[in-house]
Amino acid sequence: MKILIMKILRLVLFVSACVATALLVSCSSPQPPNLLINPGFEEQKENKKPLAWKTAQHAGKIAYKYDVDSEVVGEGVQSYRIEQYANQTYGIVKQTVVLPDGENRTFSFTAMLRVRGVAPGAGLQLVLNCRDSNTRIVKQYKSLPLSGTANWQKVTLEGDIPKGTAKFGVGIMLGSVGTGWMDDIYLGVN
User: Fold this and answer.
1) By the 8 A CB rule, do 145 and 102 touch?
2) What residues have CB less than 8 Å from 66, skipping those under 6 apart?
3) Nearest 5°: CA angle at 73, between 67 and 77?
4) What is the pTM of this model?
5) What span, in angstroms and rounded, lies between the C-alpha atoms of 146 and 116?
6) Tens place of pLDDT for every residue, the chain, 190 residues?
7) Which residues pair with 141 in a beta bridge?
8) What is the DSSP letter of 83?
């Protein structure tokens, strides 16, 4: 009889734990919508450049090549490749996003990144600039840089949104000689 009671008690505890876990999973908030346009570089303009994304380099002589890549892909049917072939401070693939209304919030900026032959130093990294209504940088966030040669990995940058932020300047920046790929980019605000 004692053994039967112990088995019933264990079963009740097990079922209770399962119900509690199911409630926690179902009550968790869904991921906020992605604020980026064309986060997987699947849509292109007439010039074969990805819709909504811009490219730039620090200054001086052209040192970067930017291309849509359908052979090295993280998600979908293509990624975006940035290659630095001469010394330069940085090259960037970027997008500006107007911040939705609200206060005391945080952001989550993620991307699948891959590198080949990227020299140590600034490497390939996520950059998020919190800008005010006059486009001045209120605060800048950067992920740790990737260098060397590595397969696809998810890189995440999270932080608080400072007061006075009206928009984000988000980008993937390469600051060392080598090649980097980006795909499946996400920017959400909580």
Assistant:
1) no
2) 49, 55, 80, 81, 82, 83, 91, 93
3) 85
4) 0.83
5) 10
6) 566 554 554 544 454 544 444 444 445 568 999 999 999 999 999 888 999 999 999 999 999 999 999 999 999 999 999 999 999 999 999 999 999 888 879 999 999 999 999 999 899 999 999 999 999 999 999 999 999 999 999 999 999 999 999 999 999 999 999 999 999 999 999 9
7) 128
8) E
Could you tell me the residue ranges of all domains in the chain?
A: 1-30, 54-189
Core vs surface per residue 7-22: b (16+ CB within 10 A) or e: eeeeeeeeeeeeeeee
Tracing tokens 């869904």 back to the chain, one arrives at 30
Report the alpha-carbon distance of residue 112 to residue 156 in Å, rounded. 9
Look at the domain 54-189 and name its fold.
Jelly Rolls (2.60.120)
**Residue 61 structure tokens:** 């002589």
